[in-house]
Amino acid sequence: MGKKGKLPVKGVGEIWAESKSENLSLRLTPTGKRLARKRAEQEGLSLAEVVELYGRGSINVEQVDGEKRITPQFVINSLKTFTKEHLAEFISIASKLLVGNYIEIQEQVEYSIAELIKKEVDSRYGKDIAAFASDVALPIERVNALLNGEYPSDLDLISIAAFLTKNDGSTYTLEEVIVIRKSCFGNGHTSGEELRP
Fold first, then answer.
1. What is the pLDDT of residues 22-71, one digit of tens each?
2. CB 49 within 8 A of CB 1
């Protein structure tokens, strides 16, 4: 099947970087032929494409409860069957999905780490910074630095995450405070030692 909006070039494959020059004759039962065409149509493929994909290992016939089982390893194994152009397209799409998810998470961030600590100190500790510092096992000087907007280290986040409460009363996870830090400070330090969500 040709690509929409692209004219085929004689002798040059559109998908596999080689032309389809080989013929194959298959004998199927009438039911097998009907069901094969139906499944190919459901997948948006021609029968020739289904056979090609199966031969290249891109379609796995293993089924679970009548449905295809696609695992990360299956996807990884099938990557070697695609052209460089298709791999580049996959990478582009995956990157957009990852960035889109990060932007979605970033838009949910309502507070900075400093604001979360201040909210906690004010509401649960009666504005007693020393009591909060004692509970999170950080020096009071460090808590004051965080309250003043200083970059929170991984150790700071590990110490404070379970003490910061959300509006619903649940506590923040380490992953959530890492996302908040990243939304406020970007990549922060360049040491490469920061935890990643």
1. 787 888 888 888 888 887 787 777 888 777 777 776 665 554 345 556 67
2. yes
Residue 48: closest CA among 77, 83, 23: 23
Instruction: Tell which phi-psi region holds residue 159, choosing left (phi > 0), alpha (psi between -120 and 50) or beta.
Output: alpha
Give the pair of three-digit tokens for residue 178: 């890492």
Helix, coil or strand: residue 107: helix
The single-letter DSSP state of residue 1 is: -
Question: Where are the domains positioned within the chain?
Answer: 24-81, 84-197
Smallest CA-to-CA distance from 136 within 103, 164, 106 is with: 164
Residue ranges of alpha helices (H) inside 44-161 are: 47-55, 72-79, 84-108, 113-124, 129-136, 140-147, 154-160
CA 99 – CA 101 distance, rounded (Å): 5
Q: What is the per-residue pLDDT for 17?
A: 62
Checking if the pLDDT of 152 tops 80, the result is yes
**Whether the Cβ atoms of residue 175 and residue 111 lie closer than 8 Å to each other:** no
pTM: 0.43
Question: What's the distance, CA 119 to chain centroid?
Answer: 31
165, β-bridge pairs: 171
